[in-house]
Structures are given as structure tokens and as C-alpha cells.
Design a protein that fits this description.
The model has no long low-confidence stretch (mean pLDDT 79). This protein has a domain of 227 residues: MetI-like fold (Orthogonal Bundle), CATH 1.10.3720. By secondary structure, it is mainly α. Helices cover 74% and strands 0% of the residues.
Length: 326
């Protein structure tokens, strides 16, 4: 219990620091978000309307930066993430609520699938090192070095332009009304197939390499040799002794991946014009949208912290040494 309280205290302190940085960094960026909104209306706003906008967004010249920081915390504790410049007059919470299901579905499925595939394949490749499977390592190394968005461009050129198997952009067919009916769900799955395959192909190669290298290291440990000497079945030694210990570093990486699911893959969503949270963040950065950037960054920060806390708990369950230290 003491260990858990210490970890919770650490994560609460980290959350406070991250939220504070989250407030100040957008305000250090050059540019005026209100002026950007004014330019969109092409001079149709009066001086009084401009002053009202500055007050509405908490950018009143009469209030100090410290006062804006206190107001930000007060609004945050009430669950008010503010009003977006980019999608004015929509609220940030509403925008995140609309885009988050797209990112969670795409990134959640692809992250879990790539982790499971990469871990299982990496276990077998590492356990049978020196076999023909090792000949595939240069291929996986090459694929893992290619960025998501570059694979996305190649996939669009081949499967959307050349052969026209999948659509090149969008989250669903235009003209459909989002809902739980089969017509919309099938269209969303069809549009998400190409970016999903792109992410899995790129990510699974990294999981294979990481798990393979750890399996090679763990296979030489004394407890694995003792398990062999006892005459235990090879499958049991591979999974219960070698893989159980080799997977521990991957759990931390997987926890971070789960946290960053919320943020989505920004460049992939931009390439495919996918209506996820990453694409929304890109639009917010272009418009100097303080409220939208803060809302998305806050969500990503809390998700990463929660994922790391979950990884700590899983470590306690899998590794007895961690329990003793705790």
C-alpha cells in the first residue's frame, strides 16, 4: 500500500507539472489566436466584439498571466476545457468527444494487434535464433525504420490510386449519417482499413525486434538452463521462464503506447485525412487555438500517466522482485 501511495503521489505531482507546462507553452508561441479568428471574419467584427472575444477566451489585456493561470485551473476543476477558436463557437470538450472515438478505434485496435503479433513472433524468433527466421530480421529492421506517414503515402499510391482497393481519405462515405447502423459501420471499417494496416505493418516490426533481442538475452540466463536440466517441456520453458521475463521491458513500452493511443498518430491522420484527435490537434496548432491544444495535450498527459500507473501494477503481478522491493 505504501508503494502504491508513493506512486500515486509521484503521478499527481507529474500531472500538476504537465498541466502547468501545458498552460504556458501555447502562450509562448508567436501569434495572436484572436487575430486569427478576426481574419477569418475578414474585418466584420467591431472593436467591442474583439474585446468580448478576448474576455471570452481568457486573453483580456487587463488580466495578468498569473490570473489567467488561476482561471485555467478553476475552469479545469469544473470540467470546462474552454471554447475553441478553430471550431468557434463549439466547446473543446464537444470537439474532443466527436473525434476521440475515431482515434480510439483505429489506434486501439492497431496497437493491441501489433503488440500481440510482434510479441508472439518475437518470442519464436528469439527462441530459435540462428534459424531461417533470423534471415527476416533485416526486413523487419528496414520496415521499423520507415515512418508511419511514409508507409501511408506508399499505401495510398498503391492501394488507393494504382489499384483503387481502398479509399484514399476520410473516415466514412460522404452523405452517410454517423450511427450504429451497419451501413455506416461497414463504411467506417472500410475507410479505416488502409491506415490501420499501415500502422500495424510499421509497428509490428519494432515489437518483433524488441522481443527477439530480449529473448536472446534471457535464454542464456541460469534459470532457463536449470529449467532445461530439469527436463521440463520446451514450450513451458519458452513461455513460463524465458518469455515471462523477456516481456517485462515490452510492458512499459506497451503502456506508453496505450497512453499515446489518445493522441493518435498525427501524421497518419493527416495523410489519410482521418477525423481523429491528431488531425484536430493539427488544426488547432495552425490556428494558435490555446484551448483546443490545451485540451488535447491534457488528455494525452493523463492517458500516459494512467498507462504508466497500470504498467507499475502489472509489474507487481509479473515480477516477484518488484513486489519485494515495494
Amino acid at each position: 500500500m505504501r508503494y502504491l501511495l508513493q506512486r500515486l503521489g509521484f503521478y499527481l505531482l507529474t500531472a500538476w507539472a504537465a498541466i502547468t507546462i501545458n498552460f504556458f507553452v501555447p502562450r509562448l508561441m508567436p501569434g495572436d489566436p484572436v487575430q486569427s479568428l478576426i481574419n477569418r471574419y475578414q474585418g466584420q467584427l467591431s472593436t467591442q466584439a474583439i474585446d468580448s472575444l478576448r474576455t471570452l477566451f481568457g486573453l483580456d489585456n487587463d488580466s495578468s498571466l498569473w490570473q489567467q493561470y488561476l482561471d485555467y485551473w478553476a475552469n479545469l476543476l469544473r470540467g470546462d476545457l474552454g471554447t475553441s477558436f478553430t471550431y468557434f463557437p463549439a466547446g473543446v470538450a464537444d470537439i474532443i468527444g466527436q473525434s476521440m472515438p475515431w482515434t480510439l478505434t483505429l489506434m486501439g485496435i492497431t496497437t493491441v494487434l501489433s503488440f500481440l503479433l510482434g510479441t508472439v513472433i518475437g518470442v519464436y524468433v528469439g527462441w530459435r535464433r540462428g534459424s531461417w527466421l533470423d534471415a527476416l530480421l533485416p526486413v523487419t529492421t528496414f520496415i521499423s525504420a520507415i515512418p508511419y506517414f511514409w508507409l501511408g503515402l506508399i499505401a495510398i499510391a498503391l492501394f488507393a490510386v494504382q489499384w483503387q482497393v481502398f479509399p484514399a481519405a476520410g473516415g466514412y462515405e460522404s452523405g452517410l449519417v454517423p450511427g450504429l447502423d451497419w451501413e455506416f459501420v461497414s463504411s467506417a471499417l472500410y475507410h479505416g482499413a488502409l491506415p490501420g494496416i499501415t500502422i500495424v505493418v510499421s509497428a509490428v516490426a519494432g515489437w518483433i525486434l524488441g522481443m527477439r533481442n530480449m529473448m536472446v538475452s534471457v535464454s542464456a540466463e541460469d534459470y532457463v538452463l536449470v529449467a532445461h536440466a530439469k527436463g521440463l517441456p520446451e514450450r513451458r520453458v519458452m513461455f513460463a521462464y524465458a518469455a515471462r521475463n523477456a516481456i517485462l521491458p515490452n510492458i512499459s513500452n506497451f503502456a506508453l503506447s496505450l497512453g499515446f493511443i489518445v493522441g493518435g498518430t498525427l501524421l497518419v491522420e493527416m495523410v489519410f485525412s482521418y477525423p481523429g484527435i491528431g488531425y484536430v490537434l493539427f488544426q488547432g496548432v495552425n490556428a494558435k487555438d490555446y484551448a483546443l491544444m490545451q485540451g488535447v495535450f491534457l488528455l494525452i498527459t493523463l492517458a500516459v500517466l494512467a498507462a504508466n500507473l497500470l504498467a507499475d501494477l502489472v509489474y507487481l503481478l509479473l515480477d516477484p522482485r518488484t513486489r519485494r522491493e515495494a
